[in-house]
Amino acid sequence: MEPTRSLEPEPLEASFDDHGAGSAKRRRWYYGHRVFRGRLLGFAFIAILVVAHAKLHPDPSVPHGAVLAFPAVLLAYALAARAFLLASIETPRYAGAVLLVAMGDEVLRLAAVYLSGAESSWLFPLLVVGIATHAFESPRRALALLLGTAAAYFGMVMLAASSVGRPLPWTATVANEMVFLLGGGFLVSLGQVAQALRRKARRADGLNRALLDRLTRQNEVLASAKATAERASEFKSNFLAGVSHELRTPLTSSRLIAEALRAEAEAAGREDLAGMARSIQDSEARLLRMVNELLDLASIEAGRMDLHPEIFPTAALVEEVRMQIQPLAELRGDRIQVDVTASPPEIQTDLHRLRQVLINLLGNASKFTEGGVITLRVRSLEEQGREWVVFEVQDTGIGMSPDQLQRLFQAYTQAGPEIQRTYGGTGLGLSLSRELVGLLKGRIEVASEPGRGSTFTVILPRWFEEGAAGAEPTEG
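The structure corresponding to this sequence follows.
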């Protein structure tokens, strides 16, 4: 048996943070193409702004040659940074190289601020943008850049002031530093939250994959168990069908022999032998009925039950089953009543299977009723544009409790152990009846009360339709 795997996910490599950018191939694509293109576009924008500022607001303290050379410096730096990162991807100093290039980016942004007016430069927000580009990749790297850039900015302002011999602009410098630190700190905080969310997302993803793997394995086990159970059920059904067939043949022969012996005994005036022959016939009839029920149930489970629908008079069927059950009812002292006044004249279904169901229900009613009344009532029902036929078998017998009703239609079981001991039986009749009624596109219901009897209701479509849905009328 496989050991149970832990649901704790394996640590996943970070996407593009301090710990790496996934595989070396992915990092090469990321820094060699995506980041490089972004850096080129950003530097081009900065170069245009610096040159435009020099044209619109010339500053005597800024050499004109430095402004013109600045775009070339940016381009050369972008190419050098790309080559440096690509060379460091598969080395232990990779994380340090990323931080070093980020610091170089901030130095060039500071240079752009210096060339466009220092503390009064309207390019100052570029420094915050630089922090933002790293805050969501690596908050630690962004924090280091934030502190380093703040110190470098102060030094840059001091350099710009000393180069022209003017006092240090404390108010503007402090205000810019505060804005920069607050804005950058906020971005770093957002980056930390985003990083925590990414970690939780990776953890949840790992848990989901582990659960999915476990569910997949469990589904495979269940599918295998289901297939095994289906094969076992098929083997059982085939075995029961074969054994039942082998039993039915000698039982039929024995019944015929007992019938012949009874006829000879009655002709010879040997009533004692005739009674013994009748006992043999009754026992064989019960055994044969039991074997037939077992064979039918096995055929249904194996999906080999064939139906032969036909149109026949309802009243004739009712009279036939009444006559078959009458001898058993007389032995129990029961009286059978039949009510077909509301019955349809004809019904289309499998005559043999419907007869089998009704005989099972009437036999059960007589079995659990002594000196009472058994009523077979047939009526029509029209619901949802369809015609239905309702067969009700009502008795005044011992009835059943709610617990017994829950076990009523289970195969090979009786309503309870006390019922099994007192009345006997195999528990096949009602289970088989329900299966047969289902095959006939109908359903069977039961209502019972201890000490007051039971009522079994069979609802069938009046006209059998192959593939039609089962009975769903509402009893009013």
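Residues 70 and 264 are 131 Å apart (CA to CA).
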